[in-house]
């Protein structure tokens, strides 16, 4: 589907009253979108990558308390954390998108693809917990049973910028492909809250997708197609609840992390060489607000950003 048609449909549905919009959009996703066939593998891989990046800093995430920004439709990431040894995961979402039927389908996928899951998690997997999951999946449990069994505390509607959690109460503040959908000032507030609630020796680990998400399903446009539009134009095209993208580049995120009291521990932006060449050759149309940016910054398509509370010593002291 051409991206502008998709944007038109999303804007049309988003113009409806909130509850009606949500009830209309979900069946569309189930029939025509990414929810037609449930495969939680990508989300499980994201949780594993988050776990490994924590381990790479010399920390042991087993027994840790995780916090997830943006639950979405399923709880695949919190379940993966639990399978690897997390104590619990607090997951919050501004919108109550969670769907029982999708969670059951994701659990059934894990259960029926046991060897694939064992290979995916490898030595990280706790066998007893995996056996328990497979047994529970066969029973088609209620959503409350699922959340309780996997030590998931779900809060929605809830604001990740104002969690009401105690200071220094979580070990790891995480998200995957969520931050790009958050307005810049709200993002800064969420990261400031992360600094407050994360323990002195905890970590903030986020995977961010910098691409134009319309390009995921429309091969006629590239990953930076949306950078040709002014902020006003882009808000008119895709400024709705279903496809809002802040278009921040990697340098913007690093700056926001630092201003929010976080110290960058590691970051590794994935840069598309073909996009770099396109920008350098002047073949990528860019709005004025992006024209003076370095090509590498514009051509970054994804990054993991790992940070720690910059005031850790002050917290300890």
Automatic annotation (TrEMBL):
Record-level Gene Ontology MF annotations: S-adenosylmethionine-dependent methyltransferase activity
Source organism superkingdom: Bacteria
Residue ranges of domain Methyltransferase type in the record: 157-205
Xref: Pfam families: Methyltransf_11
This protein's name: Methyltransferase type 11 domain-containing protein
């Amino acid at each position: 589907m051409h991206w502008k048609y998709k944007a038109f449909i999303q804007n049309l549905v988003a113009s409806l009253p909130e509850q009606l919009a949500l009830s209309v959009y979900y069946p569309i996703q189930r029939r025509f979108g990414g929810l037609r066939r449930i495969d939680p593998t990508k989300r499980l891989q994201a949780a594993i990558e988050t776990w490994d990046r924590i381990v790479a800093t010399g920390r042991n995430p087993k027994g840790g308390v995780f916090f997830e920004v943006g639950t979405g439709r399923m709880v695949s990431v919190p379940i993966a954390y639990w399978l690897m040894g997390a104590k619990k995961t607090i997951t919050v979402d501004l919108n109550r998108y969670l769907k029982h039927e999708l969670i059951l389908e994701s659990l059934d996928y894990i259960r029926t693809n046991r060897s694939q899951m064992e290979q995916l998690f490898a030595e990280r997997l706790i066998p007893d917990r995996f056996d328990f999951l497979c047994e529970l999946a066969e029973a088609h449990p209620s959503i409350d049973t699922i959340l309780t069994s996997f030590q998931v505390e779900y809060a929605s509607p809830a604001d990740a910028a104002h969690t009401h959690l105690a200071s220094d109460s979580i070990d790891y503040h995480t998200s995957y492909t969520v931050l790009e959908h958050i307005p810049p000032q709200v993002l800064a507030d969420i990261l400031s809250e992360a600094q407050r609630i994360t323990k002195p020796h905890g970590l903030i680990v986020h995977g961010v997708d910098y691409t134009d998400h319309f390009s995921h399903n429309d091969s006629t446009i590239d990953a930076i197609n949306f950078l040709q539009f002014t902020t006003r134009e882009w808000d008119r095209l895709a400024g709705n609840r279903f496809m809002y993208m802040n278009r921040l580049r990697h340098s913007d995120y690093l700056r926001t992390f630092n201003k929010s009291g976080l110290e960058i521990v590691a970051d590794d932006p994935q840069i598309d060489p073909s996009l770099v060449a396109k920008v350098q050759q002047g073949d990528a149309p860019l709005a004025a607000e992006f024209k003076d940016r370095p090509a590498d910054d514009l051509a970054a398509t994804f990054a993991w950003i790992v940070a720690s509370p910059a005031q850790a010593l002050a917290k300890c002291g």
